[in-house]
Every structure is written in C-alpha cells, then in structure tokens.
Amino acid sequence: MLSVLRNRTYRHLFVAQVVALAGTGLATVALGLLAYDLAGADAGSVLGTALAIKMVAYVGIAPVVAALAHRIPRRRLLVAADLARAGVALALPFVGSVWQVYLLIFVLQAASATFTPAFQSVIPDVLPEERDYTRALSLSRLAYDTETLVSPVLAAALLALVGYRWLFWGTVIGFLASAVLVVSVVLPAAVLAARSNPDPATDGTGARSVGARSLAGIRLFLSVPRLRALLALDLAVAAGGAMVIVNTVVYVREELGRPAGDVPLALGAYGGGSMLVALLLPRVLDRVADRTVMLPAAFAIAGLLAVLAVVTTTGGGAWRWPALLALWAGLGAAGSLILTPGGRLLRSAVAPADLPAAFAAQFSLTHVCWLLAYPLAGWLGATAGLPAATVALAVLALASAGLAARVWRTGATVVRPAVGAVPDVVPVVSPGAAPEVVPDAPEVLPVVVTVRPHHRQARRPVHRRPLHAPSGRVLVRHHHHRHTAAP
After folding, report:
1. Does the model's pTM come out above 0.70?
2. Which of 15, 167, 374, 466 has the CA that lies 20 to 30 A from 319?
3. What percent of the chain has pLDDT over 90?
4. Nearest to 466 by CA among 419, 428, 413, 423
5. What are phi and psi of 319, to 5 degrees?
C-alpha cells in the first residue's frame, strides 16, 4: 500500500491531508470547550447548531464552488482554501459571543467544502493507474480513521500543558503546513474535454451558466445508475455511523452504566474496524469487483443494527459490553468497505473532465444523507427510545441496500480505463462493423474508430486515447483529417 508514496506529488498531497486533518481534530476539541466557555450548560445547543451550519455549508457550497473551479488553477484553489481555514482558526480564540462562532464556523466549513472535492478530483490525475488509486483511497481512509483516534489524545496531552485556546494555534499550523505542501508540487492540468454529459447551457459566460454548472454534477450523479447506487450505499453508511456518533455516550453511560473512560474505547472500536478494512481491502479489490464488496457491506450494516436493537432490549449482563464493542467494530468495517472503493466507482463512471463536478456532487449529497440520519439517531432516540431509533435506522439501511442492489445490476457494470491511461494499441475496426453496446451505460456511448490510409499499405495501429463522441456518433479518423460520419 505504501508504494504509492514513492510518487512525490502524491506524497506531498497525502502529508498535506494528514496535517490538515490533525489541525481539524484539535479545532473540534477546542471548539467544544469554547462553546462551554461561552454558553455553559447550553453548550450542546451551540455545538448542535454549529454541526447544522457545517452540513448546510457542505451541501450548498460544494456544487457552487465546483461550477466556478474550472476558472481557477487547482493548486491556487487548494492553497486559497487552506489559507482561509487558517485565517478562521486564527480568529476563533478571540471570539466573545456565540454568533461570532456561528459566522466563523460557516466560513471554515465553506472553505472545507471547497478544498475537499477539489483535492479528491486531483488524486486520480496524479495516480492514473487503478491499482495505485485504490491504495491511495485506502490511505485516505486510514488518515481519517487515525485522526479520530489520535487527535483527542493529542489534544488531551496539550491541554495538560496549555489552555484550550492554544489548540487553535495548532489548527493554524496544520492548515498553513498543508498550503505549503500543496505549493511544493506541480499538479496535472485539469481535463476540460470529453465530458460525460455535454450541456450547452454551461458555457461559462454568465450567471445562468454558473447556476447550470452548480447543478450539472448533481444531475450527472443522479443520471448514472452506478452513482445512484453509490448514493444509496452512502445512506446506509450514514445510518450506521449516525448511531455510533450520536448515541455511543448514551449506550456506554446510560444503557450499560460504564464509566466515562469507556466512551473513547467504544469509538476506538468503530475506528479500529474501519482501519483494519482499509489496510486489507486493496488486495481484495485487485481480485474482485467493487459491487461484490460494497453491496454485502450495506446489508451487513442493516443486520448489525438489527442485532444492536436486540442487544438494547435485552436485560442486563456483562456480555453486553463486549457485544457493543464487536458491533461498533463491525459497523466501522462495513462502512469502510463502502467508503473506500467509492472513489474508484465514481472515477469509472464519468469522463475525466466531469470528475470535479462529480466529486462535489457526492460531497453534497453524502452530507444530505447524514442530515437525514442524524435526527433519526438523536431525536428519535431521545423521544421514542434507543430501540425505536435502532430499528428505524436498520430499516433505513436495509431499504438503501435493497435500492442499491436494484439499481446497480451486474450486467450494468462498466469498467472504464484508468484516467490518463493510453492503451498501447487502439484496435482497428473494419468499416461497417457494429460497435459493442454496453448495457445501461449512458455515461460512455459506443464509439467505432476506423483508420483509412490514404495509400495502399498495411493498416497501422494508432496510438491514441479512445475517442468519446456525444450523441452516439461515430468518429472516423484519417491519418491527416477527422470528420464525423453517421453510425
């Protein structure tokens, strides 16, 4: 897995991601303490509102930024987002009222909604080989999981030496270091041609085009069956993850009567399951298809939540604590089985030029899924009880898995060449030959490439990228000319 770090550009980008995540983790701990300092017993309400602001920024900002991002060099966009986040972190220690916290959190999360999809869309161009990209996805998953485990420990160690406001300075350092690392590399130029779904309204000449571009990624995401299935799978992950994030403390403290120190142990079990899968999955994906891994994982989330409902309704017993740890580890592992290959699936479904818009659409739509799952886990658990919330989330996960299985059929799976890969030889198809039609694949239309020499000589293979033609047309290439012929 670590072999991808030999690529200098990716190595710098990965380290930038890690230090930025560490800074974000410190800010999360410091923000909770700041909220308590400002609001006292109402700190939970402040944090809940801040979380809602975060989700609104993620859902609303990412598509708009993706619509404008083609006008800005990607490295400049990433650095600007990092500098904006560093500026917000620098201002947070000096706030004196709750509304200032809300305003700064919105700016911070808007910058994150700019950085994350742009960063995700760069990696396929840096690592065009499918095998390398898969390992990069696993490393990214490991980075996220490690941050959830390490950041609280690091924050606790720092709090033993300094006040919590100093943690924000660690966040500033993390974002500035990320910006420096991004500046230190040359990123591949964005692909601007061969779009999956050309749209004449998105010509970049006015506000109407910006609005059309903002929705283009979402329209593209919802028009491709595999990506609709991916969205349903993300909803299943949100159902399991929301139960863990929202109700771990309730299960540990109220249901099981365990000490507060066991809360991070339970969360660690969830992260540990995810990390174990991220380590082992690349070798598995070298041998099996993404669908074979992702769909069973979604059904597993529903099954684990159903078992959790049984454990919740069962009377006391010391066995329930190890059972909870096992269930949390299982939910983390199943979530990682879906989240880790998600980038591969998205990259295989759209043209290279559409990757930024597609990643931004996934970023927004995934957080819509979490907005649906959080209230079920929190509000329903508080009003109707944990068993009812667990059953509701299990039903949601099961329905999502069933929808994904229905939409993503085996015959509809298309394996697209790795981004940037140029085949050694493009096969020469005789004139009049019928193109191969791939079922249920509107995103890549069938194309026949024919070589017609001007002189009587043996046909030679053409070393070119496969040609993508809109509207099902067939491109006929001469040695010196190209024109469009009817299929």
Report:
1. no
2. 374
3. 18
4. 423
5. -70, -20
